[in-house]
Structure formats: C-alpha cells, structure tokens
Predict the 3D structure of the following.
Amino acid sequence: MGKVLIIGAGGVGTVVAHKVAQNPDVFTEIMIASRTKSKCDAVAKAIGNPNIKTARVDADSVDELVALFNSFKPEIVINVALPYQDLTIMEACLKSGVNYLDTANYEPKDVAHFEYSWQWAYKKRFEDAGLTAILGCGFDPGVSGIYTAYAAKHHFDEIQYLDIVDCNAGNHHKAFATNFNPEINIREITQNGRYYENGEWVTTRPLEIHKALTYPNIGPRDSYLLYHEELESLVKNFPTIKRARFWMTFGQEYLTHLRVIQNIGMARIDEVEYNGMKIVPLQFLKAVLPNPQDLGENYEGETSIGCRIRGLKDGKEHTYYIYNNCSHQEAYKETGMQGVSYTTGVPAMIGAMMFLKGLWKKPGVWNVEEFDPDPFMEQLNKQGLPWHEVVDGDLEI
Ligand code: NDP
C-alpha cells in the first residue's frame, strides 16, 4: 500500500520499525534513516527483514533530507528523531512532496520552550501542496488526544474537565535514568508547570503541585503537575474545556537526582568553556547517563497512561476514565525496547497506517484529535496497546 521512511533510530524509532514491519499489507517498502547509519542497520538486522533499507542523514540539513526523499520517494515520513529536527523535516517534505508525521512538537535547541505555533504556521503551505502533516502522534501527545476525541464523540456533549495522567510504575534497577532522550526529558521536567483554567493559562513553579493518584493495577503514586504540549491543542480543539491539566509520576529517588543535577549546573543548556572547547552541560550529561534503549532487559512493572474526563451528556454530569497499561517486559520481548519507547512507537506506526489507508488524509497540518478517532482506537487494540474504560467512576481529581 505504501512506502514509509522512518527518521531516527533511537528507542522510539526501533519500535516504529518493528511495528511497521509487522504490517506488510500496509507498509510495502521501509527505510530507516538516521545520523548514525550503523544504528539503522542494527535495527534492520534485529527485525530480520532483508528488504528494509537504511541510510545516513543529517536531519538538520534540508538539502540532505531532500536528496534522500527524492531518491527513496516515500509517501510518508515518520519523524522520530528529536524535536529540534521537526521544521527541517517539514521543509524537506514540502520541497519533495512527502507527507509528515511526528511525536513531539518543535523546540529550538537554545531555549527550553515548546509550543505548536512554529508547526501550525506551516498549515497553508501543506494545504496548498495537497500534503498531510500529522502532529504529536505518540502516546502523550498522541493517544491522549485520540482518547479525548473518542470521549467527545461517544460519551459527552460537552467535555469540561480533562486530566491526562501518566504513570510509570516500572523499575529499571538503575540509580538514575530517563525513559526517553535524557536531554529532551530533563528540559521538559525542569520547566515551570502550566495548566489551563477558565480561558487562561496558570503557571506554577516546577513540580510545585502534586498529589497521590491511584492507577489501575498499580495503586497510589505521587503525581506532579507538568506542562505538556497536547494541552495547547486540546483546549483549542475542544473549546468547552474549563480546565485541562497533565500529571506525571516521579519517585523520590528520581527527584533527588534531578535536584542535584540542577543544583550543580548539569541541566544547563547554554555553552560553557571546557578545556578550550565549548560544551553544553545537559548534552554532556546525556553522554554519561544510561542509554534509554538499554533499559529494557531488566525493566519490570508497567506504565499506565490515560484521560480522566468530567462533562455533560444529555444535560447530566458524567465521568469517564480511559487508559492503557503497558508492561515493560512484554514490550521488551516484542521489540527489544522498554514500555515508554513502545507506547510512543506503536501510535506513530498506527498514525502512518491511518494516512496510508486514506482514513487520516487531509491536506494541512493537524493535531491527532482533529481526525476520526474510531479506526485508530480499533488498531490500538490490535497492535499491542489495548484500552479500558471506567464510566461514572470516581476520578479522584
Ligand atoms: P533517542 O535519543 O533514543 O533517538 C533519537 C534518534 O534521532 C537517534 O537515533 C539520533 O541519532 C537521531 N537523531 C538525532 N539528531 C539527528 C539528526 N540531526 N539527524 C538524524 N538523526 C538524528 O530518542 P527517543 O527515541 O527516546 O525519542 C524520539 C522522539 O520521540 C523524541 O522526539 C521524543 O521527544 C519523542 N517522544 C515522544 C513521546 C510521546 O509520547 N509523544 C514519548 C517519548 C518520546 P544518534 O543515534 O546518532 O544520536
């Protein structure tokens, strides 16, 4: 049915490649390209499909991307490199007539700030070119928005309160490690918190607000209010929302390490002089921390991510909780990667599948909640991320 190019051969890219290869009726030709070709070759070898092509590309260079796109001629590119590359890859897509999908919104390298405005600005150009760009199609952002769209379609006339809850109750047996790219992860967590209430954004100090929330099959875990990018698009696309918040669990050990990293200046993203050369402390830290791709083997426990929603149906107040639990070990057995990479890579593959099947094909730049959630929800159950619902239960928040 279609030719797909995966950019990035990290934890998420590895899962995307496995899942794409498991669906040969949809993805008829596959290429993995990244900064380090040997990593792409290793992924292709682990999958064991000799037809998977690999290539080296610097995704910061529009020219290199255009040359690659013009030689392989993919119908869609799945961008699972880093958020810094979103705009160069979108530019190259426009120049070569390729459709686009990613899992994280653009961030400039020198400011830890993420918002959709940079990518939304491409809407008219994608529309005019007749190309589709699907933004934020991982788990959160991604499935969190699709769950919300599904709730709006089937359970509510008006969504009023939305809490996205993300728990990782796994144990990787390392003193400190991040579950996805450490640089991106630490930039996200050390920022101010932010949530939406009555038409305004309320800013909090980093990790200032927290409470214990109870996760299915896991129990209570301290959960911290963070700013997360899907809040921006969800309050725009569901204007009845009065309050939208995002919560993530962290253990005390993790937070202590994070505090030390910040206090000693290792979370800095500006350049410092070291032995006559310039280094960025957070990038150096990434080089010495455990590689998120190596955590899978000893990872126990599971993740639980979902949406807790309150709103109106036929004039009556209702609650709705929809979630998935994902076992790190099961994810590892299937793809060699832990649950956080798995929960991101599976939805990215399904998004590309939706596009190639013509179900999510509309010229422009879109967030996932702007498409029909039903065929995507059906695939989540088939592709390894089944979902569960609690109707009119206690949401706790
Ligand atoms: P990794 O760091 O493991 O992998 C990133 C990959 O991108 C590496 O293979 C890296 O190459 C490659 N890369 C980096 N820069 C370039 C470049 N200039 N040109 C070509 N390739 C490049 O990250 P993850 O796999 O953990 O995360 C991938 C993406 O997924 C990130 O954007 C992250 O924010 C997002 N994500 C989204 C989630 C969601 O739920 N929506 C959750 C988790 C992650 P090299 O190996 O040479 O360094």
Residues 49 and 202 are 49 Å apart (CA to CA). The chain has a mean pLDDT of 97.
